[in-house]
Write a structure and sequence with these properties.
475 residues, mainly alpha, Rossmann fold, two-stranded parallel ribbon, 9 strands, elongated, RNA-binding, Glu/Gln-tRNA-synth, ATP binding
RNA sequence: GGCGCGUUCGUCUAGUGGCCUAGGACGACAGGUUCUCAACCUGUAAAUCGCGGGUUCAAAUCCCGCACGCGUCACCA
């Protein structure tokens, strides 16, 4: 059975790059009727942030990428939080020492730092000098008994070639002399990432290890560990890393990496996933718009392209607009209502939102675009984007004409206004623009006649008369 | 700097030796439609397939070298 996992560090807000990873883990597991596991990697006590776990799970739920096993969903291979598995790592680290594949190291942080500085000065690669490898077992035993602080390091064989197979790139060779004697168990009793992933992935029966490309160069360490434990290594996939426009790792400085930002700006989770799916993967028929279900059916990890794509917000916005355009009206209404309530603490009147949806459906790209476009439906304009002071006469005639309309429908209105414009020999564009601004205050609005129909006769006349008053004052 | 990975329009990509004088999408631009904005329609510009060598009747596609970009070099993940 296929089992994939997302290894998430609770160190801050949910990152869009994490979702990108999770999408592939999730889709691949689902495609093969497998299980998708979320494991909390909180082995760095200093970086762990309280509350981050909750945020991660709520982000997963928002995207519809909920896991099958985790700290909140019981599974057969728990616990799923690494800080709850400390004895396990200790046991395996010691097993490695017993096998002669790892060793105790008593070097102080100061010594390591000096060593590093020294090597850097000599323009050499900063690596541990394997000092404690030379310690004999008697001495080690003695030092351990006195309670001296220690770490356990991986004993990397000298002068061999380590071959690792990455399913997207083929076989990659590393010279073991370039691989550091990695610390596996820290002096605080916590494992480092390397020990923890290998032990956990094995114990949790992970079949496909999907992780970011930033891990690629550490894969020989992983390979060595699997060999030393004599475990079967899962299939390895190093997925591309999303980039900034300048091709560096996608970061806060140059883009929006926080999932919350997308929520707050009214992006739809389906649209984001669809967009993300197209980064490094393409639909066999060249389709750009597809559902998660369709993606799951067609996706295969091996089709991923190992090139770091640049995150292009305009395309995401376009895609979001496409999703809104295709959504049922009642659903958009609910989404808008919900969105403003939740993220802007505004309770918009449901009936009015419902009426305006048909007018704005193809005009907004994000839920957050709704109010700037439709605010005038809820309150009369305070400011006017065009100076109407010379139009007093025009508006008087408009009022006169509007008052005669008995059937207040967009069509009637349009007809009446059209004929008035031609009677007065005013250009359509000018005429309607003046009226538009009088009613809404804005140059850009949904279709005028329809908008006026929704506002109603009384309100429209009120607003135009208000405009006349204001233009009169200006004179 | 060592090591590793990568390189097709501005961006996401199609492409696995002939169908490629390189296709699509976003974006840009121009025009049409139109009461504004969108939407929609039509069209234009945009990649000498990073560069240089091979192999082959034939290369974006295979091989080699170089350049550039990115990643990584912690008791962080």
């Amino acid at each position: 059975m296929v089992r994939t996992r997302a290894a998430i560090s609770p160190t801050g807000f949910p990152h869009i790059g994490t979702i990108y990873q999770v999408l592939f883990d999730y889709a691949f597991a689902k495609k093969h009727q497998g299980r998708f596991i979320v494991r909390i990697e909180d082995t760095d006590q200093e970086r762990t942030v309280a509350g981050a776990e909750t945020k991660i799970f709520s982000a997963l739920d928002w995207f519809g990428l909920s896991e099958d096993e985790s700290i909140r969903k019981k599974g057969p291979y728990g616990p799923y939080r690494q800080s709850d598995r400390l004895p396990i790592y200790k046991k395996y680290a010691e097993e490695l020492v017993g096998k002669g594949k790892a060793y105790y190291c008593f070097c102080t942080k100061q010594r390591l730092e000096e060593l590093r500085n020294q090597l850097q000065k000599q323009k050499k690669v900063p690596m541990y000098d394997k000092y404690c490898r030379k310690l004999n077992s008697e001495e080690v035993k003695k030092r351990l008994q006195t309670g001296e602080k220690f770490v356990i390091r991986l004993k990397v064989p000298e002068n061999i070639t380590i071959k690792v197979r990455d399913e997207l790139r083929g076989e990659i060779s590393f010279d073991s002399d370039n691989v550091d004697d990695q610390v596996l168990l820290k002096s605080d009793g916590y494992p480092t990432y390397f020990l923890a992933v290998v032990v956990d992935d094995h114990l949790m029966k992970i079949t496909h290890m999907v992780r970011g490309e930033e891990w690629l160069t550490s894969s020989p360490k992983i390979k060595l560990l699997y060999d030393h434990f004599q475990w079967d290594i899962p299939r390895l996939y190093h997925t591309p890393i999303i980039r900034n426009p300048d091709k560096s790792k996608f970061s806060k400085r140059q883009g929006h990496t926080n999932v919350d930002w997308y929520k707050k700006n009214g992006f739809l989770p389906e649209a984001i996933l669809n967009y993300l799916a197209l980064l490094g993967w393409s639909h066999p028929e060249g389709k750009e718009l597809f559902t998660l279900t369709e993606f799951i059916a067609l996706f295969d990890l091996k089709d991923l392209k190992p090139i770091g794509p640049i995150f292009d917000l305009p395309k995401l916005e376009w895609m979001n607009g496409q999703y809104i355009m295709k959504m049922q009206r009642s659903k958009i209404k609910d989404q808008i209502l919900n969105y403003y309530k939740k993220y802007q603490d505004l309770r918009l009147p449901e009936d009015m939102v419902e009426k305006t949806v048909p007018l704005i459906q193809e005009r907004i790209k994000k839920l957050a675009d709704y109010l700037p476009l439709c605010e005038f439906f809820f309150q009369p304009p305070e400011k006017y984007e065009i100076n109407l002071s010379s139009q007093k006469e025009l508006f008087s005639k408009i009022v006169e004409k509007l008052q005669q309309i008995s059937d207040w429908q967009a069509e009637e209105l349009g007809g009446a206004m059209q004929s008035l414009a031609s009677d007065l020999k005013v250009k359509n564009s000018e005429f309607f623009m003046a009226l538009r601004v009088a009613v809404s205050g804005k140059k850009i609005t949904p279709p005028l006649n329809e908008s006026m129909e929704i506002l109603g006769k009384t309100e429209c006349l009120r607003r135009i008369e208000l405009t006349i008053d204001k233009t009169a004052n200006n004179c």
